Amino acid sequence: MSERVTVEERGAIAVLTLNRPERLNALDYATNDRLLALLDRIEGDPGIRAVILTGAGDRAFSAGGDIHEFTESIRRGAEEAVREFCRRGQAMTARLESFPRPVIAAVNGIAYGGGCEITEAVHLAIASDRAMFAKPEIRIGIPPTFGGTQRLPRLAGRKRALELLLTGDAFTPQRALELGLVNAVVPHQDLLPAAFSLAERILRHSPLAASRIIGAVTRGLNTTIHEGLAIEREQFARMAGTADALEGLTAWIERRQPVYSGT
Predict the structure, then answer these.
(1) Cα–Cα distance, 95 to 97 (Å, whole number)
(2) Band of the pLDDT at 2, cuts 50, 70, 90?
(3) Active-site residues: which are they?
(4) CB 124 within 8 A of CB 145
(5) Phi, psi of 108 (to 5 degrees)
């Protein structure tokens, strides 16, 4: 059996590919667990400074949760379904959201349900012009379970999110761009090059600073502005004593390109 998620390292960038193309890269429990394990491995590797997440094949980024599998969990009762399906999926999207290195989704096809929730959770996203999005859980009698009722309203606004959540209607990548779900829409053949280009623009800068920014934004979104500013001060204080901060300032004063060590 092939790996549910494959990994390829290209320099300082790891490409993770959801790898069930025959099932439209549906997120069964093994896929979810494999993705979490790979993120743990990548976090422990200082040589990897950014992650690109995409889907295998030409049809789908991910069609969402594996309905056949989680239906069996639901049949065993609510407690089992919450433990096996809901908590597992929420742990995965929360891990992507709070991952200390930039995670870029390269949405190469349909991103329905859990696939859309992954797109909501990652730090940045680029969509192919062939991509399609949907929040179709209501069509099978359940609400979203991987964070979609919480992250989409924060990205798109309450009323626009509720329209998508309550109708289950599919929407285009251009609409996803308008809603703030993706950063750009590009021709299909340019998708991975665009994702790499974005990652490389980030890699020019201090990895420590990138991590502090991600931490401040992720934590601050769920607090008051007063609490968020305290988080910002904390992240700055953690950065101020580093070699990277001194290098960045010195390079600016000396009018040269900085050379960061990640320390």
Answers:
(1) 5
(2) confident
(3) 117, 137
(4) no
(5) -95, -5
Please give the average per-residue pLDDT across 92-101, as a whole number. 97
> What number of other Cβ atoms are within 10 A of residue 236's Cβ?
13
Neighbours of 263 (CB within 10 A): 11
- What is the β-pairing status of strands 103-107 and 50-55? parallel
Total Cβ atoms within 10 A of residue 130: 16
Q: Within 13 Å, how many C-alpha atoms sit on residue 86's CB side?
A: 16
Q: How far apart are the first and last CA of the chain?
A: 40
Structure tokens that stand for 55 in this block: 């889907």
| Single-letter amino acid code for the residue at 67 | I
Cα 169 from Cα 97, distance rounded (Å):
25
**Residue 21 half-sphere exposure, CB side, CA atoms within 13 Å?**
11
CA dihedral 69, 149, 124, 134 (to 10 degrees): 60
